[in-house]
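Researcher:
Attend to token order:
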Amino acid sequence: MSSSNKKPVVVYGASGYTGRLVCEYLRELNIPFIAAGRDAARVQAVMDKVPGIETADYQVVGVPHNVDALTELFQGARAVCNMVGPFIKHGHEVAEACLATGCHYMDTTGEQDWVLEAQARWGAKFAQKGLLLSPGIAQMYTTGEIAANLCLETPGVDTLDILVLWKGFPTYASTQTIFTILKAKWYYLEQNKYVEWAPGASFEVNVPGQHESALALPWGGTSHPVWFKDDPRVSNVKVAGGVFSREVMKSVVATQQMVEEKIKPLPLAQQEAALADIAASVQASMPPRENPRVNISLDSVYASGPLARVHCVIHGNCNYKQTGLLQAWAAASLLQQPPRRVGFASACQAFGHRELLGALRSFGLAMEPVLTVHR
């Protein structure tokens, strides 16, 4: 395919659960795209099940995971939605190919170590070319970031206490990521400095809208402390996350303890193999399509300062659909206008938190935020 008639968006890893959803929303937004992955037949089989796919302008391409092949694939495109994780293992090749071809880069990562590494290794290079490098555009990060930014519209707050909960079970790729981050160091932000979480940290959290508490984890530290690190309004950021099911969270806490005691002493290569095996045993198949009456999400942010208190809650549904829409909407925006910030930037920094909220609201994936302000 010549670059003159190239589809403008590439969804790399389109055969996965989230990749398929990104393609669904690109179709709904009427954006032409390439659905790419290592196995073209598998990608095509997934695309064949996308509702209304016969009305989409798309092409399926098989591509090996190396810089040369990806560079050839991305040539002539303008934005890449990377779904191939764990990103700390597979992200650099995609970022390098994006840089070589002038493509904006986005992914759905939940790996704080990848966010930090991408920022350090690729951020300045993307900025020099006027390109966006935006890891972590996903419900578990972006929707909470929207809530945080709504709080920050009130002057005087400098501390963000963020809670992200959702109901459902992680996909295969998400499970791989969850176990990959168990071997990394996790950080929160205190007086604008990174502070390492204690190994095995977990805590009881109060859940807005229900009487029952929940069990949550630092969830790898998340992306938020990195995004707000150099925001002049913010000094402190802590994030708790997890699923509503206490039984699932108990098993994650137990696994976390086992990793500390038995896997971390192993050489790095053996750590990765052991964690991948555990992840595959936990979730080896594609979970069912989300049901909005079952798969709910909750993003709660307490923002505080010496003379201000704000609480924002965003109730939503179908967190993977939220992720798919956020990726597709961001790609569509990049085809229309430059991002608000180039180089390393979060979704809200690149596209605007109220604009992203508008997209979630217009597709029925989020309620109007509940904002309580005390001054």
Observations:
- The chain has a mean pLDDT of 93.
- Residues 246-263 form the longest helix (18 residues).
- The radius of gyration is 20 Å.
